Amino acid sequence: MNNKLYWSALLLCLLGTFLSCRGEKENKVAANTQEATTADAFEPDMRFASIDSLVDYMMEEFSSKTVDEFVNRYKQQAVAVKSYGLLNHKGEDADHWDEVVFRDLQALADSLSGGSTFDMVMSCRIERGMSHYLIAKDYCEKYSRNPLYQAEMRDWLALEDELGSFYVNLAYLANWGGTIAHVTSSGSLAYMAEERQKDYCQLKKDGHFANSESLTIAEARADFIQELADAKSLDSAMDEEMYDGEGYRETLKEMCEHADRVTVLLDKWLASRAQLCKAEGVPDNHTAHLIAVLGTRIMELIEG
Fold first, then answer.
1. Segment 107-152, tens digit of pLDDT
2. Which domain holds residue 292?
3. Backbone angles phi, psi at 170, to 5 degrees
4. Measuring CA to CA, which residue among 85, 203, 183, 190 is closest to residue 133?
């Protein structure tokens, strides 16, 4: 009798295990099916069937004043990128649409870089747009729920907007009357976005930090403030008939106002950045490097 009970219990146990495994397998299949169905359910936006339409949308002038605007803009661009990828690269790895699509964008930027003034400006805008997209992707996927990253991004966006306006004015002043000013100003914005992107992708705990300069934040800041002062001291005595002296002086005034606001916003960003870097173990020379390269651009613009 005991043997019968033993074998009955064993059979019930085995049956239960079988049913449990079968249930888990069915649940996994169902989950995978649901995931595939969700992916298949994505309807690409036909507006982004061509590279030109994607560029027009992704590279349009857009300044994110807040982190929410920054995030929402990325989400809209991500749909455009995925749509273009599905419409033009069927069979490619859907998990890497960004890489696939950015190959096309980079090829276009490279082809335009040696063309007309308009082409070169477009090349810079494409480069800038890709950098902004990658920064936003990194932020949304890894850091958007972290208050320290939120504060750092908020203060950076304010600084970037003001510093970008400063760069543009300085580029026009340094190349007054020349069409190259359009290219130089666009290139400066692309340069700032690229340097920020390289910096930001390393902002994580135990990250790899490629910058080994011994420059301190205080030293980098002092150099940057001096470079702003050098730009503000540009000569405003221009030949009014040949160079539009009044326009030059007005632009110089605007640039100086931007420079003053950049100083305030730089310190605000440095404060939130310091808290983030301390928590994440990011060395000070990483921040110092970014300030230094941003200042280097000022000197390049002044010297032409």
1. 999 999 989 999 999 999 999 999 999 999 999 999 999 999 999 9
2. 146-304
3. -65, -40
4. 190
